[in-house]
């Protein structure tokens, strides 16, 4: 599978932060951080560290020229702790030395004294103490209180889902270089260049125009570099600014795992009511989000949990409340799905438990309640595309769902110590930033006199293939060969006020901006061609596959000549354009509106084989029918789907974060934190592209793909539960992810 970076990647030619050519005299940063989860800083002694070999400076809160504030949504997070530390790993200072080793040695010589204060790690406890990041949020439709009376079955339980370490291949890092006039250039591995720029300007008390941020690509982000690339970039910028020397700061892997935020763990309660036919009449849920010690993106993530609390189902009466709870752990942050997976896991658990009590397979209830056109989500938006059912039905026909179920049953009747399980997982994911103003982008398209083209947008390439897609979009829009087009780095001096590359909107937003810019250029070029060919109106000119047509007739004018002519006629062959998603709005008082441009739909069927002696398991297959709209690049979309599925299964099954009673992360290395590897991923992944579903709300009729497939992984949890119940029919079911082999084994024999 190749995308445009593949060849350079395998040759080691692609540049990441650690590969940036460094200016002479560059210094290296290392972070000194809190060893306790909550407490007062009583004494900080840098004196022997400052005398340590190679040390050029130590910077902490008191050295900040501007504000010691990096909070984006809520201003509640210091770059460096002032008098109180709020989690193990809370940065206190950055040491800068002539080598990484010298910086690290000096950090060890810093003497800090702390007075411990009581710490909270559990979100429900935090909620009891009213330690909330923002007031509770509630989405409501219909009237649940009245609806319970009409239900034949009412089922309640609680659900736990764990955090997840991003484990991007490239750890957090940046290089900051002082530039003339007191400005600073920051090369950062960030999904949000403007967030880095804005925050550096705030901390350094500089106007934003004096801070330039450049991003070539990331070795993976997955949401972990949306907000949390910022502190390390700003620390490097601060040191570079103070010392007037370039500073490189890259977190070593273990520090990255310890210091940075992860997916939010959630603890939730549900109550679901159904009639005899399996129709869900009412659903009530309360979500306790473990936000960690500062807001970060938690409020936006909390909202997405509510937006997706009913997944692909129509439920007429819903009351869902979500609380963002402040605890003494590193601030949790964006991770593929952005709170959606946590919300969906709860309703899938509710359906699973209801099915168990009703004596049916969960897929019977899932199917009965799928969204159809005209249905209303709890947030007021109406369903316009009937793809939930299309995808589910194709799982039944194309992938012979009943046959898979029959074979699993047969296998289980013939085998005692090895059992199989199967589950179906529908997904419906809303596409747009739910913070409406973020749904904008701009593009800058330069055509050079030799006919080559450079494109700049806000999109950050992090392995998701956005550059490949943008190149295709640009080539189609200008009707020229992709070979002419280069996608440039993401740079705040070329593209201003960027939204982060997130919410799966990178290709959508920036793709539309490119289309708009290319329209302007094409229009100008047709005018030039009309004049050059003395052809009258430019409406008679068409540019197709680099050939210029006049009234449908091929002309002798080449594309290269046309570009030359435009330049010589002093017509600009550069265009800049903006795009904003039309027709979306959301009222955060009533929690109603039309927040999403569209939804992405799909269904997966997942099979697992469980070794009931060892508790180990292997996923045999994941078969998916997914709505890609009219895919721009099938290879990239398939890669996103497979990667998302593997990551989703990892979250639900093997990836387990464990903190001790003091709030210290014990699983801070790959020896203790297990992620899916090539042996663990499903033996077979088959992805069917739902056919004939062009999406008028996406560029070239495409759909966003980055996040939605992650949630197919939730089906892995229920497939595994089914395999366990085949071995132990009276299994006591706890809805608690991840379902590690250890947990499986213990519950099979308890
Ligand atoms: N795929 C790869 N290979 N690496 C990544 O970091 N991030 C995911 C997804 N797929 C990611 C990825 C997340 S969290 C998002 S929001 C989208 O890609 C962002 O890119 P897009 O908007 O261009 O889809
Ligand atoms: C999905 C997302 C994001 C989101 C909303 C979504 C996201 C993000 C923000 C956000 C919200 C408010 C801010 C801000 C960012 O909202 O990634 O800076 O002030 O960053 O539905 O992925
Ligand atoms: Mo993705 S979690 O929106 O970066």
Write a structural description.
This protein is of the alpha+beta class and 750 residues long. It is 29% helix and 26% strand. The protein folds into 3 domains: 4-118 and 166-259, Aldehyde oxidase/xanthine dehydrogenase, a/b hammerhead (Aldehyde Oxidoreductase, domain 3, Alpha-Beta Complex), CATH 3.90.1170.50; 266-434 and 589-748, Aldehyde Oxidoreductase, domain 4 (2-Layer Sandwich), CATH 3.30.365; 440-580, Aldehyde oxidase/xanthine dehydrogenase, molybdopterin binding domain (Aldehyde Oxidoreductase, domain 4). Helix 6 crosses helix 7, helix 9 (298-307) packs parallel to helix 10 and helix 14 (466-478) runs parallel beside helix 15. The mean pLDDT is 97. It binds ligand MTE, 3,5,7,3',4'-pentahydroxyflavone and dioxothiomolybdenum(VI) ion. Ligand MTE binds at residues 220-223, 336, 462-464, 466, 501-507, 640, 643, 704, 706-707.
In short:
With 750 residues, this protein is of the alpha+beta class.
CATH architecture of the largest domain: 2-Layer Sandwich
User: What is the CATH superfamily label of the largest domain?
Assistant: Aldehyde oxidase/xanthine dehydrogenase, molybdopterin binding domain
Number of domains: 3
Q: How would the global form be characterised?
A: globular
**Spatial strand arrangement across the major sheet:** 3-5-1-12-9-10-11-20
Please report the number of helical segments.
19
Helix residue percentage? 25-40%
CATH topology of the largest domain: Aldehyde Oxidoreductase, domain 4
Reported for the largest beta sheet, the result is: 8 strands, mixed
Distinct bound molecules: ligand MTE, 3,5,7,3',4'-pentahydroxyflavone, dioxothiomolybdenum(VI) ion
Strand content: 25-35%
Q: Give the C-alpha Rg.
A: 27 Å
Mean pLDDT score: 97
**CATH top-level class of the largest domain:** Alpha Beta
Q: Which residues form runs of ≥5 with pLDDT under 50?
A: none
Distance between the termini: 45 Å
Output the structural class: alpha+beta
Q: Give the beta-strand count.
A: 30
